[in-house]
Amino acid sequence: MRTEAITISMPLPPPELHPNRPVHPLAKARHTRAARDRAFYLATAMLGGRGKPYWTKVQIQIRWYFTVHRRRDEKNLDGWLKAYVDGLVDAGIMIDDNPDVVTWAPTEIHITKGTAAVLFIIKPINGQATQDHQ
What is the pTM (predicted TM-score) of this model? Predict the structure, then answer.
């Protein structure tokens, strides 16, 4: 069982997935699938493939890194990440993304001169993990 925190860095989600952006449903579905797959493959690669932790209770902190300083609505940013969170569930980081499993730590927004990205810091609560599912 894994009991230490993991950190996964991903590019910003596609703009088409932002909650306030009007997008044709088929285009949104295509971008959602691509973002979900990206999160799945990045998480799986970070975990070394198999030996998934399948944590039963986790705390997730999101750290946004933007290159432009402007006011941002944290609730809209959270909605922008739904496909990524689903990909983390698909990869086996946690068993589900419902409130019984996930506790959300306060979101942080930073300005960087580097590349815009979103960082997921995921840690089990009280070392809660099931056996590895192979």
Answer: 0.88
